[in-house]
Amino acid sequence: MLKTSTQRVAAPQRLPTAAVRRVVARSASVASPPAPVQFHQPKLSGIYTEQQFKMVIKGLVASGKMPAHLEPAWEFFYDNYKLAVLNSGVDGADEKLVTQVQASILDNVLNQAVDPYTFPSFHSRLLEPYNYYEFGQRYVATLIDFKNSVLGYRERWDRVQELLAQKHNVVLLANHQTEADPGVFAHMLAATHPNLSTDVIYVAGDRVVTDPMCKPFSMGRNLFCVHSKKHMDDIPELKAAKMETNRKTLVAMQRKLNEGGTLIWIAPSGGRDRPNANDEWLPDRFDPSAVELMRNLVQRAKQPGHLIPMSMFSHPMMPPPKTLEKSIGERRVTNFTGVGISLCEELDIASIISGSDDKETQQKALATAAHTAVTESYVMMEKAIKDPAFRATRPEFSQPWAKSA
Prior knowledge:
Largest sheet: 9 strands, mixed
CATH architecture of the largest domain: 3-Layer(aba) Sandwich
Number of domains: 2
């Protein structure tokens, strides 16, 4: 049984909740507002201003409930987030909204300090008594410029939905850019394919389930928890335990695929994209062993399966550190920006690997084909997001959340 917090959930406060609803509804032009803001600690629900919030941070440090080095880090996070939201130009994006969202994040981080959640190999999103899914969606929505965001190839997403309804499995081989990617994915599909946005299972690495800031957001997503090869040797004495966790996760993945109708999102690169030497953001190289693993799992399943590349553009929203870091607790930079996802054609596995009988060559060919498709899709989508004139000439990119859609 999944562990849930036993702490009381406070009643939502009307003014900040109304502000959040206005911002999300008007920026996305959608009819359904998010659920009311929830708090584990009722006292935090009454924080509406920057001064109040920063006084709470100082009080936590003074009482020993927060390490002193986190005070400037969180103040930077607040100030940076406030700048992004207030400059968004969205009606209702004010100091109350900023503080309410920041207070809800602080509330969840503090709750994890006293009632930590341990992720199993397969984690189902937690919606009661606290709705962690809405918590994450609310935060991400305030940073999305929906007017300059796109959903690529809506009809291909229709096909994915049809396949899942027929008990087929679908694995999305995607690039990965920010901690907010699950929220971006869900927002882009919520208007047209709500079940895809909520039912997808993400293959999640170490940081997603261990970083105190990430954990509450991760609790609102369905996850297969694994340890990435990039971080397997960070702490040598934990390597054996990490490998055992990965083994259990593979068993859980195979079980879900045998049931059928499972949608999985995985980043075969093993982490977030980073800018290249020319400061260009492009999908990072796919690890052939990761793509091959998914191919084997899909082919061994009792139900039919499909490997489909997908491109994701989100890096301006929460750009990761430019270099790979081993320590937990990175500095959070946020921006209000256009984002997008776009689906590629399904991989024709038999055709791709037909050129060689060598297994290693076949694996590299499959990973290269997936990465090439994602990169080409990404380049087109990035242009559609940044150039409205170009977007207007490309019918494959739509904005289904807009009232006119």
